[in-house]
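In the design runs reported in the main text, the only information available to the sequence generator was the tokenized backbone. The following block is the verbatim input for one such run; it is reproduced so that readers can re-run the procedure and compare outputs position by position.
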């Protein structure tokens, strides 16, 4: 993957390999606090987070064997150092903490199995903002991964986190049925949020 474009609701991430430069753009008018978490033993850019104003772009660098995730934190308050969604309990810089569900995750694995790069939008922890990621000038099957529907607008009452976010069934109820574990580990699971929003959630391996 030579170049990756990632959009989270209004957040655009461009990934260029060298060391890997990742451009993160907030295409909305809202202010996001970006969260970053790497796999154990790998560096965490910007100590895990930074403020990204509407229309702003910030670049971070990671090594070319990096595995980690990005997420947008919304409704953040610099006075209390907390966010309504995706909060990591550590202020602007998450410093190794993950984001609290429900939150949309953008996941990247560089030089994974077979030396290939992998990327996805994960809703296994729920949804707070729209997201997409698209490689540019890559080789192989470099299609766009995206969640471009407003899941919050169609979220069932029992999965709502106020008006700000929507839990996944697994994150909310934590049962084998919804989390595909134990005897249900190999069962496929499809959740249709609403007839108006034909979204399908496929269980993935979270990095």
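Verbatim output:
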């Amino acid at each position: 993957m030579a170049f990756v474009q990632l959009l989270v609701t209004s957040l655009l991430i461009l990934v260029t390999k060298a060391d890997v430069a990742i451009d993160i753009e907030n295409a909305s008018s809202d202010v996001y606090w970006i969260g970053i978490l790497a796999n154990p033993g790998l560096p965490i850019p910007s100590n895990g987070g930074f403020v990204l104003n509407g229309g702003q772009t910030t670049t971070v660098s990671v090594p070319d064997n990096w595995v980690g995730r990005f997420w947008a934190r919304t409704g953040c308050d610099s006075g209390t150092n907390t966010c309504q969604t995706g909060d990591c309990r550590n202020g602007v810089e998450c410093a190794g903490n993950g984001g609290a569900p429900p939150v949309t995750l953008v996941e990247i694995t560089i030089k994974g199995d077979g030396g290939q790069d992998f990327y996805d939008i994960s809703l296994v922890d729920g949804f707070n903002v729209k997201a997409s990621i698209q490689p540019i000038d890559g080789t192989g099957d470099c299609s766009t991964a995206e969640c471009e529907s407003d899941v919050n607008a169609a979220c069932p009452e029992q999965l709502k986190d106020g008006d700000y976010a929507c839990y996944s069934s697994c994150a909310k109820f934590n049962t084998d049925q919804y989390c595909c574990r134990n005897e249900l580990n190999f069962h496929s699971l499809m959740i249709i949020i609403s007839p108006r929003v034909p979204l399908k959630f496929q269980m993935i391996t979270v990095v």
